[in-house]
Amino acid sequence: MERVIGTYVVDGKTIEYSITGRDGEPVLVMHGGHSNCYEEFGYNSLVKEGFMIITPSRAGYGNTSKEIGESLSQACYYYVELLNYLEIEKVHVLSISAGGPSGLYFTSHYSNRVKTLTLQSAVTKEWHTPKDNIYKLAKILFHPSLEKLTWKLTSTMNNFFPKFIFKQMIPSFSKLSYQQVKEKIVDEDIEEIKKMNDRQRSRFGFLIDLLQTKEILAEDLNKIVSPTLIMHSKHDNAVTMEHAHYAHHQILNSDLCILESWGHLIWLGEGSEDVNRKLIKFLKNY
Fold it and tell me: Which of 27, 65, 89, 271 has its Cβ near the most Cβ atoms within 10 Å?
């Protein structure tokens, strides 16, 4: 899979980005939490169908300046600046997991730059709050001073005991039991999880994500006019179906696709090929 990595500096701030595939209609990916412009999930099928994928490392992730993430408004302004720099007028927006608020705000406020919006396992409203134990734990484990060690330990353990680590991660991703998940995955999925853990870093990005989820408002979703596809697994335990139903209720021109996938990572396991087919069919309709 051909991937070109670049950086664009504007107003003294850096935006790191990748371009995967060279020609065809552009897809702007707002990657999920702990990710960056090296994201891979779902890319192969899009590239094979002729799409060009542009993935900025979102605010605070990778080599992108954390300062552009002072607000969703400011972050999306700089994503538009990146498109201007690349001389790309309109894109299909694909928002994944914690990248949901970025894609929703971008589509709502820059509708003239958006062909379609797709939400995959996406956060669509306030997510974890300071009262939640998972929020408190995340503030420690993924603090910029500690997150490198957190991911180094995860990656090391994952390289030695990939199946064990996957089993420990299942409750974070799925409402299903380990035995039920085992029936829906193949050995190659364990390798994909291992690769995911190897490339993940939080830097300042995940803490920015936790703050920005409260910035996306119902009025932002109400303003979205672009055709919207919402794809979400009924078994997702990382971002519950409540987020998908909420977006579907607030976005007038939206279709809700409820998946039987084993959990949050809808690109893996039983049904993943159907996920790719439905996405490509949607994109090609516009």
Answer: 27
Overall domain count for the chain: 1
Backbone φ, ψ for residue 236 (5° rounding): -65, 125
The 228-233 sheet, strands edge to edge: 3-10, 13-20, 52-56, 26-30, 91-96, 114-120, 228-233, 254-259
Q: Which residue among the candidates 18, 97, 155, 226 is catalytic per the annotation?
A: 97
Task: Give yes or no: 97 in active site.
Answer: yes
- In CATH, what number is assigned to the domain containing residue 78? 3.40.50.1820
Mean pLDDT, range 197-210, rounded to an integer: 95
Range of the domain at 258: 3-284
Q: Is the dihedral of CA 231, 45, 54, 31 positive or negative?
A: positive
Give me the pLDDT at residue 2, please: 84
Rounded mean pLDDT, 135-156: 93
Q: Supply the pLDDT for residue 228.
A: 98
